[in-house]
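User: I'm new to structure prediction. If I give you an amino acid sequence, what do you actually give back? Let's try with this one:
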Amino acid sequence: VTLGGGHSATAIALAEYFRWRNHVSRTAAMYRCAAIGYGAVIGLAVLAMSMANEWRLLAWLPIVAIGAHAAYRQKEIVMMYALHIVLVVQILLASIACNLSYVEICALAAWLPFVGFGAVSVLMRAANRATAKTKTWWRFGVACALTFGSFALLSDQNYLMRSAGWLAAVVAMYVLVYVVRRAALLYAGNMMSVMLATLLCAWRGVSFNWALVVIAAFGLIGFYGAGWLYRLWRGTGRVWNAMLASSLTVACSAGLLASLSSDVAIVAGAAVILVGAGAVFSVQSYEMKRLEFAECGVVIAMLGAQRLLYVALPDTHALVYTHLWALVAAALYAGYYACKRPIESMCHLVTLLCLVTIPGLAAAFIDGGWYQLLFLVEHAAVVIMGVATARKLTSIWGAVGVTVAILYMLREFQALLNITIGLLVLAAVIFAIVRANHKKRI
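Assistant: Good question. You get back a string of structure tokens that encode the predicted 3D arrangement of the chain. For your 442 residues, that looks like this:
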């Protein structure tokens, strides 16, 4: 401590004296270089020697003084970074002297340089003294927050301190996004926020499935809400697109994973979040005039609703699920048809007919009974809808289904009632088709 203090005081005093005598004196520069060189040697000796942590902390203070003087007098930016490194080492030595744990040291080393160096940069800008050296302060503060925050995240100690250290990294990333104006970094910041939410759930002892529900809700409400506020303030742009994409990605992925649980409450929460994500998709579809977003939203919402139905009522027949998907296909068909998009509407019409016919036919063959009558009634309704909408494909498809149902019923004499009903329905369908064609000719 004595050697370092005496050396730093002597070297700084001589450098300032010769600089006072001659502003361009090479002697002053020589003394500054000597101070830096000897200071580095003494600093390495301090770190390598076996001594008490308190003495090591005191012995490092002259090195800080040398670095501060050199950074103040030298115009090279590299000296500023050297000063930052010396200050960070001082913070680490102080943390070790206080007998802090590893994760506490990482959290402290993440927050102190980030806040302190950032404050220096802000004050220099406020005093109209912003130079190239000013940027080094906030840059190194952000680098320390990201580095030591990552070290805290990778540790296996207290979840609270890990969250505190990682929070510094998250805040630093968003500050970096604000300064450099890069939307690509915003995606990284959002993912880091999701990891922070995971750490907080682990700290509170939340189970894995409930943590997925919390993460999905955080992604849907937090990211979409922040993006919506930014949109009110600055309008649409890359930031809004990044927040919207992050919101839907996190909500859908975490919500779908949470829906795989067998707990009704967890599945219900996941279903609500998926329905919310579907609503967001629908809003974007209305604003952007693109039905593809609405289609994605309806599919995601239906997945959550059907998973909830399966967990709450596990004995539900498979036809209920297929008919729900048929309703979705019918709604999408109507939407594409109203928008005059024939290719997409035809694809969804075929999907609708397949969802009505194939599962119903399988149930009629396997279970029999009322499912045969249901198959007949459904395809009679398909014929009527085809005649009403002048869709030949729908009319032919329904007529074939009715014919197959009646022929299958004729194989048993006990199904006389079903046969009679089928013949009456077929007669009504044929009469409706003939009458519709007659009106068209007139």
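You can read the tokens as a compact description of the fold. Here is one thing that stands out. The radius of gyration is 36 Å.
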